[in-house]
RNA sequence: GCGCCCUUCGUCUAUCGGUUAGGACGACAGCCUUUCACGUUGUAAAGACGGGUUCGACUCCCGUAGGGCGCACCA
């Protein structure tokens, strides 16, 4: 009976897709999926000064990486300017708008005066009821919306509840600039209406706009869409997202080694909840999502939790899938290109084999990459400090003896090697860990690397031993 | 300054008048263990403040404080 659900994500291409925008896109996407509807994508590029092509590309790429697909082609809002002008004309014709001949300078003065007198900063309605015949010559007018006076404008918001604005607090906003281009609030209403958008999900920073837009819908006799205003995401320090953390584009999260699925899961839990559910698939999210379960207070972005979640997703991914994910990640990682250049079928096989041990100790793809460095290590290796220490302490013989044992061993599995070496360590009166650790560190050069036996088995013992021998001289 | 919104462990949150206020991350401690991890067990940790309403408030109302958003010929 009800209309098919149509949501939209409408970013302005003045920068990358930041984390708040990504969550808004996620919610719109999930909501559409939940109701078997569509999510449209509209690029709000009416600000010709600040909109850029690279920004559009970054937004599309970010959404694609996150797996948030949109229906149909992305719509350029600017391309619809003629229709916006048409509607402005209708508003003019029906008495819901009027020409205003105030110059920008006059408006600045008006604002400054209001501020000085500590009055609300609003347009004073100078031209609201003035006869256009009084218009000063040579001034290109703007068109202002005639905001209804008296009474109030009510927003029934799924997340924010019933929000009431006194109409006197909403002044006559400009809907068409003096150069004939439409402004945001007009364009949004016209586009959402024309695109048959049924549900608007966006940040609370648009709440006041929602009131102004509602007035335009009413003036045009159009149905006001269902609205949900999502609380904002703050940086770890509680203030707004700064450049150092939250304000990063999603591509930065990609470069930090986060998985799209983990980021989706994390983002969903910021401002939305489903009982005690913490870790859930996107399918479950789609099944559970309801705008009524969105909270009202802003959330801080917590990298520690994202990292934990990401580690969980890495650990639970199949080895071959993880290898694919890692390979896809490499081009976006610092130093990743070099590794990619060294990739061979042999190394790929080794990588897959090592994945079981590697993924247990990696929280991000960056750490996974670092853990796999031993596969790319080139001689001469740098001797680990602990190994040096053990040798200095007189443990040199033990290390060499262990090496001999490994060479002589007929055991070919990590478990068998382990058993042999364990027995050996006891005869030496040394703790196995004390021997194994420096060997591993010398081989891998990292602290997040897998156990020595995994390393030996993956590399093939001959090669490993040769490397270790180089080190022990 | 004006308008709107928000306020439960350090962080994300559950609770929809009656709970020992629950979970997760993080922290700390124990166990597991050849290292690092993983896993596992446990501990500490919260209703901003002040008034109401009510037999009973985290939950409803008012105020205070703090925070956020908006107030462009930006979106």
Number of helices: 19
Helix content: 40-55%
Q: What's the shape? A: elongated
> Biggest sheet, strands in spatial order?
1-2-3
What kind of assembly state do the chains in view correspond to? single chain
Alpha carbon gyration radius: 31 Å
Major sheet size, sense and barrel closure: 3 strands, parallel
N-end to C-end Cα span: 81 Å
State mean pLDDT (0 to 100 scale).
Answer: 85
Based on DSSP secondary structure assignment, what is the total number of beta strands? 12
What structural category do the secondary elements indicate? mainly alpha
Return residue spans where pLDDT drops below 50 for at least 5 consecutive residues: 242-246
Strand content: 5-15%
Molecular structure report:
- The chain has 473 residues and is mainly alpha-helical.
- It is built from 19 helices and twelve strands.
- It has helices spanning 19-34, 53-66, 81-93, 104-116, 184-194, 207-220, 250-255, 260-268, 282-288, 303-315, 319-329, 336-341, 345-358, 365-371, 385-408, 414-428, 432-444, 452-459, 461-472; strands at 6-9, 38-43, 75-76, 97-100, 142-145, 152-157, 161-166, 174-176, 199-203, 226-230, 233-234, 299-300.
- The strands form five sheets. The chain has a three-stranded parallel β-sheet with strand order 1-2-3.
- Helix 15 packs across helix 16 (414-428).
- The longest helix is centred in the last third of the chain and has 24 residues, at 385-408.
- The protein starts with 5 loop residues before the first strand and ends with a helix.
- Mean pLDDT is 85; it is low at 242-246.
- The protein binds one RNA strand of 75 nucleotides through helix 4, strand 7, helix 5, helix 6 and strand 12.
């Amino acid at each position: 009976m009800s209309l098919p659900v149509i949501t939209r994500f409408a970013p302005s291409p003045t920068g990358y897709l930041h984390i708040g925008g990504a969550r808004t896109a996620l919610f719109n996407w999930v909501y559409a999926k939940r109701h078997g509807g569509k999510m449209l994508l509209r690029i709000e590029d009416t600000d010709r000064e600040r909109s850029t092509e690279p920004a559009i590309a970054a937004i599309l790429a970010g959404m694609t990486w996150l797996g948030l697909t949109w229906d149909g082609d992305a719509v350029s809002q600017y391309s619809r300017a003629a229709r916006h002008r048409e509607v402005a004309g209708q508003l003019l014709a029906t008495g819901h708008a009027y020409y205003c001949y105030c110059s920008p300078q006059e408006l600045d003065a008006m604002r400054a005066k209001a501020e000085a007198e500590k009055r609300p900063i609003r347009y004073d309605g100078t031209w609201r009821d003035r006869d256009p015949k009084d218009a000063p010559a040579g001034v290109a007018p703007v068109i202002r919306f005639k905001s209804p006076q008296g009474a109030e404008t009510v927003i029934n918001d799924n997340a924010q509840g019933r929000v009431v604005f006194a109409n006197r607090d909403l002044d006559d906003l400009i809907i068409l600039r003096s150069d004939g281009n439409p402004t945001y609030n007009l364009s949004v209403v016209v586009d959402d209406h024309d695109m048959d958008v049924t549900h608007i999900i966006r940040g609370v920073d648009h709440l006041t706009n929602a009131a102004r837009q509602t007035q335009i819908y009413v003036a045009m006799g159009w149905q006001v869409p269902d609205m949900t205003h999502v609380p904002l995401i703050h940086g770890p320090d509680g203030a707004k997202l700064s450049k150092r953390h939250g304000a990063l584009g999603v591509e930065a999260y990609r470069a930090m080694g986060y998985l799209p699925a983990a980021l989706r899961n994390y983002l969903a839990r910021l401002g939305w909840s489903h009982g005690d559910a913490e870790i859930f698939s996107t399918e479950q999210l789609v099944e559970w999502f309801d705008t009524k379960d969105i909270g009202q207070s802003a959330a801080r972005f917590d990298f520690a939790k994202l990292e934990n979640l990401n580690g969980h997703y890495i650990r639970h991914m199949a080895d071959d899938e993880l290898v694919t994910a890692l390979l896809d990640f490499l081009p976006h990682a610092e130093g990743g290109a070099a590794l990619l250049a060294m990739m061979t079928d042999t190394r790929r096989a080794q990588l897959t084999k090592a994945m079981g041990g590697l993924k247990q100790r990696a929280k991000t793809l960056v750490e996974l990459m670092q853990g796999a460095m031993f596969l790319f290590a080139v001689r001469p290796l740098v001797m680990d400090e602990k190994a040096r220490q053990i040798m200095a302490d007189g443990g040199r013989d033990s290390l060499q003896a262990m090496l001999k044992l490994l060479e002589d061993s007929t055991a070919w599995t990590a478990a068998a090697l382990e058993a042999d070496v364990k027995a050996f360590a006891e005869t030496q009166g040394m703790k196995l860990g004390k021997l194994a650790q420096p060997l591993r560190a010398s081989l891998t050069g990292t602290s997040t690397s897998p156990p020595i036996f995994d390393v030996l088995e993956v590399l093939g013992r001959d090669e490993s031993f040769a490397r270790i021998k180089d080190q022990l001289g």
